[in-house]
Amino acid sequence: MAPKNKNTRNTRNTSSELFKSLTRLFSGPIINYRSQSGRKIRRQHLDKYSSRFKTASGQQFKKSLYNPLDQLSANAMQNQRRVERYVDFDQMEYMPEIASSLDIYADEMTTYSDLRPMLGIKCGNEEIKAVLDNLYSKILNIDYNLFGWARTMCKYGDFFLYLDIDDKFGVQSVISLPISELERLEGQDATNPNYVQYQWNSAGMTFENWQVAHFRVLGNDKHAPYGTSILDPARRIFRQLTLVEDAMMAYRVIRSSERRLFKIDVGGIPPHEVEQYMEKIVTQLKRHSVIDSQSGRVDMRYNPMSIEEDYFIPVRPGSATEITNLAGGQNTTAIDDVKYLRDKLFSALKIPQAYLTMGEGATEDKTTLAQKDIRFARTIQRLQRVITSELEKIGIIHLYTLGFRGDDLINFKIVLNNPSKISELQEVEHWKAKFDIAAGATEGYFSRRWVAENIFGMSHEDFIRNQREMYYDRKHDAALQQVAEAAAAGETAGVAGGGGGGAPADLGLDTPAPDAGPAEIPAADAGADPAADAAAGGGDDSMLLAVPPGSRNASRLTPGAKNKVYNPVKVDKRKSSGPRTRNYAGHRNAEKSSNTIRNVFPGSEINTIPSIAKGIYENQDSNYILKESAEEVKLFEVNESLHSLIFDLETRQEKLLTEQDNED
Question: Which residue from 22, 38, 277, 643 has the highest number of Cβ atoms inside 10 Å of its Cβ?
Fold first, then answer.
């Protein structure tokens, strides 16, 4: 019998259950399909092909049309000169405008403030929200790493992250993979068109779809299944601009220097001796000394004409020797062609020119810049959706590994901040105008339902829910108003009962109020003359608002003691005390009046209290849907029974073989 593999949940073991389940989960879109079961059954009876072809673009239809030699499939699977594009992008980053544009893209995608964190998680389940917050903030360290991920994705159009997954703790860390060495394999499996794998060529490794997070900027089918860089439209313009800038700099270096023209009178020297004579004159006028490194002597060598050297022209008799200054290049200020290509570069990068330069093209009014900022913000939001999509995929993998199933896997949403404050203000102004129109329309012209449906675009269900919420808001406000009125009435009654002349208690005054009433009367003064008391009190005949307390000199004195000292016993042995107490307690809780274990031995069940093993969000109830949980239990039971049956059959076979060997 083969040994049983105990490592059944290791994500690196291809035969483990977790590896297979994650592969099945990410072999297609993660969607909870909801359909009308009755109509589906009737349609299956009527349509004999309903079980095979669900839709024209369904999986079965794709399987039947799969052809690995098809031109479209070949173009999608082949590596379309990715290395050349990546080399161009690396060269383009040396231009400061392009490098700054990549930084601006990454900065706008990862904006944050003191009130708004960089990454927001929207989820109704507090346990799932706490798990995801720990994943993104502690494990992935989004606040520090997301800027670099976004910049690399914008530069190359693709970015790959390897997910280090543990079978107990989920995603533990991420490792960036080299972009030029990784390939995305699609359409390799004829039975599943949505099956995706990643191949690392240099390392000779193949990863499943759930082991790699592929950030890709889609939108250009020419480079599918890979993304398109934001620098891709500027590749041709970058080459032209580089060429024009080099030509402009070469022209300035060569033509900008000023030279002199020497006209030397050679007289009647024969033509074949003119050159020798001119060299002699040049050497005398401008000698170029070279020091010999071996001998240390000064050597007068021939200096070939450079761009800084002057011109020497021989002339015949009749022309005097003349020296003329030659001006430098006159077209050094003509850079219109460079500006033209630079403007095209900014158009290809989709960044307002005012963000990068402060020259001629950047002088724009606030209105124009605001409109460009809004359009640029929409481009940033499109790139943010790429980031959030892959981050949600990482979150789904983490939740599935920790044991979450069903709707819990997709019952959350990741959001990034809006990069443009101007667009938010514009949206606020838009809603303000709608509110003003709605307030004016309801004054005798239209109903609330009409305004909600035609101005705010609300459905009937949204309108009913909004009305219900408004009702509960009014009810809550009324309850708060009643509490405030009751508190105000109580304060008024307290002031009236305590007298208007006394100081408030919270002022910390030790002097008692004159009309606050007498304190506790000593026993010795209880029988004093009323007339004397009236004289001592200054003749105040006003009515007392409260009866003075009686004498309490004895600690155990009761009204029915009749001046006798009462010593209470520790144990009340009266028969009527215990049953009466239990009877009174039984009115509140039936368990109090019965002889249960908690009543007879209180505190004996302390060990039955569950421990907090996973934090404050631990829930004893399962997160599964009851039906899915029951089906999973049945699957485990059937699996266990099959293992037991196979084990019994193998044991029986071994016994039969042993008996046959013994008989032989």
Answer: 22
Do 501 and 514 meet the contact criterion of CB atoms below 8 Å apart?
Answer: yes
Q: Please enumerate in sequence order all residues whose Cβ is within 8 A of that of 519, keeping only pairs 6 or more positions apart, or say none.
A: 512
Are residues 377 and 420 in contact, defined by beta-carbon separation less than 8 angstroms?
Answer: yes
- Give the CA count within 13 Å in the CB-facing half-sphere of 145: 15
Both structure tokens of 514: 């004159």
Query: Has residue 53 got a pLDDT over 70?
Result: no
Dist CA 170 CA 403 (whole Å):
9
pLDDT, tens only, 473-521 = 988 888 888 888 888 887 776 655 554 444 444 444 444 444 444 444 4
Distances (CA, A) of 131 to 124, 139, 302, 561, 660: 13, 11, 81, 67, 60
Sort 350 into a burial class: Cβ within 10 Å, 0-12 / 13-18 / 19+: middle
Written as six digits, the tokens of 448 are 């609330």
Residue-wise pLDDT tens digits, 329-346: 566 667 788 888 888 888
Alpha-carbon distance 211 to 18, whole Å? 12
Handedness of CA 632, 637, 640, 645 (dihedral sign): negative
Count of CB atoms within 10 A of residue 244's CB?
16
Residue-wise pLDDT tens digits, 449-481: 888 888 888 888 888 988 889 888 988 888 888
Range scoring the smallest mean pLDDT among 250-254, 315-319, 502-506: 502-506
Burial bucket for residue 430 (CB in 10 Å: 0-12, 13-18, 19+):
exposed
Question: In terms of Cα–Cα distance, which of 63, 69, 78, 16 is closest to 194?
Answer: 63
- Amino acid (one-letter) located at 412: F
Give the range with max mean pLDDT: 64-68, 328-332, 395-399, 658-662: 395-399
| pLDDT at position 317 | 67
- What's the gap between Cα 297 and its chain centre? 74
Give the type of residue at 484.
A
Strand partners for 511: none
CA 125 to CA 135: how far, in whole Å?
A: 15
The percent of residues above 70 in pLDDT, for the chain, comes to 60
Average pLDDT in the chain: 73
* CA-CA-CA-CA dihedral for 589, 591, 594, 596, to nearest 10: -160
Alpha-carbon distance of 83 to 89, in angstroms, equals 10
How far is 664 from 356, CA to CA, in rounded Å? 94
DSSP classification of residue 222: G
Among candidates 548, 547, 528, 546, which has minimal Cα distance to 536? 528
Report strand pairing: 182-186 vs 196-200: antiparallel
**Is the pLDDT confidence value at 219 over 70?**
yes
- What are the C-alpha distances in Å from 315 to residues 223, 278, 318, 585? 68, 11, 8, 134
Peptide bond into 530 cis (omega under 30): no
